[in-house]
Design brief:
Strand content: 25-35%
Bound molecules: zinc ion
CATH topology: Metal Binding Protein, Guanine Nucleotide Exchange Factor, Chain A
Strand order of the largest sheet: 3-4-8-7-6-5
Structural class: mainly beta
CATH superfamily: Peptide methionine sulfoxide reductase
Helix content: under 10%
CATH architecture: Beta Complex
Shape: globular
Radius of gyration: 13 Å
Distance between the termini: 27 Å
């Protein structure tokens, strides 16, 4: 089975920290924080299409925010109880790379905010 560890040679130190060790990049540090990109964001590890650039919006959170994944089954969800308030972790369904978290304070109608680390993503054809 494919795993994010298989791609560790191509990951930057920050990407390794986020994707493999489930860390978080510093807010406003990522290159995809602001919306306005075109194309598809891929998993930095396995290259699976994860988010449409057009589904990104500016949540002013310091991280890229998306309304929905590329397809419902390209991501998987895990309960994350590392902080006091439980969060829902989002991982790449193909290689288990940690991507970020999903919150329910997004815009109508779905109210979802996929809060994703820039270093976990790679813009297609960049
Ligand atoms: Zn992946």
């Amino acid at each position: 089975m494919t795993h994010i560890e298989d791609f560790k040679d191509k990951l930057s130190p920050m990407a390794y920290k986020v994707c493999v060790e489930h860390g978080t990049e510093p807010p406003n540090s990522g290159k995809y924080c602001e919306p306005g990109h075109e194309g598809v964001f891929l998993c930095v590890g396995c290259g699976t299409a994860l988010f449409y650039a057009q589904d990104q919006y500016d949540a002013k959170s310091g991280w890229p925010s998306f309304l929905r994944p590329f397809e419902p089954d390209v991501v998987e969800y895990y309960e994350d109880n590392r902080l006091q308030a439980p969060r829902t972790e989002v991982r790449c369904a193909t290689c288990q790379s940690h991507l970020g978290h999903v919150f329910d304070d997004g815009p109508e109608p779905d109210r979802l905010r996929y809060c994703i680390n820039s270093v976990a993503l790679e813009l297609e054809d960049e």
